[in-house]
Amino acid sequence: MSRARFSSQDMKLPHLDAASYRETVRRALDEDLGTAGDITTDATVPAGARGRGQFLVKAPCILAGLDVALEVFRLLDPDVQVTARIADGQACRSGDVVAEVVGKARTLIVAERTALNFLQRLSGIATSTRRFVDAAGDKLVILDTRKTTPGLRLLEKYAVRAGGATNHRFGLFDAILIKDNHIRLAGGVKAAISAARARQPGLAIEVEAETLAQVDEALAAGAEIILVDNMASPDIREAVRRAAGRAKIEISGNVTVHRLPELSTTGADFASVGALTHSAPAIDISFEIELVG
């Protein structure tokens, strides 16, 4: 039988290599600079001036995306000097300086907004994720979803890991998840599972169930993971009881920080949360620059 996924061990991914996001950073810079460059900085900052910039956190958070932010400066000036003081995944207090950058003053100003956009966004995801993980305790594994910003999925899922949660499938290509439309078009739960098993025999099958009757159908057809969608807590408990270890149970829909303590008592294995990436507020971080000799 195919192995069910999403354990906190087998879903941990290695630290991101700069090569995996460098082109994303380059496109972000191109978007900001256009064909004319930073016309304000070119007009007001002497070409030979040098500066020191510090990333200053203004609200408690979990840091994520620092290397991505620093890559913005490196792309503009390979000779820039960067010093990281706090690592991704670590907690920051208001007033913490997380990194320092020394180089051409023009480079620091040009890079500032793009670097902050990455750092604020990714730290916001990591911080929101940590709240969900803490609320779930050790009873539920918190998963992310594909509800990510187009073009930024790699980075946003990295930020989820920095916050302590686990990545669900990265895209449509790496896992089977049969949802309501698949079931409808395939002709039912059993037919959808049979077709998926025949096409991808080596992969675990996850099936969305909106009712306990569909849970029973998925169990009878041998699904390894059942995603119980928008079910009330009593029904989730009943789904767990019926599964009796034959399948893992994933909670989805209306998973909030406030509801997680209750959901963690249902016996389910996972809870997937789209809000980790689609609704996380950016963290207030500034980049303070001063001239140096």
The helical percent reads 40-55%
- Give the N-terminus to C-terminus distance in angstroms: 66 Å
Average pLDDT, all residues: 95
- Note poorly predicted spans: 7-13
The percent range for strand residues is 15-25%
| Biggest sheet details | 6 strands, parallel
Number of strands: 12
Please tally the helical runs, counting DSSP H or I stretches of 4 or more residues. 11
Rounded radius of gyration (Å): 23 Å
Order of helices and strands: HHEEHEEEHEHEHHEHEHEHEHE
**Any idea what the shape is?**
elongated
What topology, given as strand order, has the largest sheet? Answer: 6-11-10-9-8-7
Structural class, from helix and strand content?
alpha/beta
Would you give an account of this structure?
By secondary structure, the chain is an alpha/beta fold. It has helices at residues 18-33, 39-44, 66-76, 105-136, 153-162, 180-186, 189-199, 212-220, 233-243, 260-263, 275-278; strands at 50-57, 61-62, 81-84, 91-92, 97-104, 141-143, 176-178, 205-209, 225-229, 248-252, 270-272, 285-292. Helix content is 41%, strand content 19%. Strand 10, helix 10 (260-263) and strand 11 (270-272) form a beta-alpha-beta unit. It has a six-stranded parallel sheet. It has a four-stranded antiparallel sheet with strand order 3-5-1-12, covered by helices on one side.
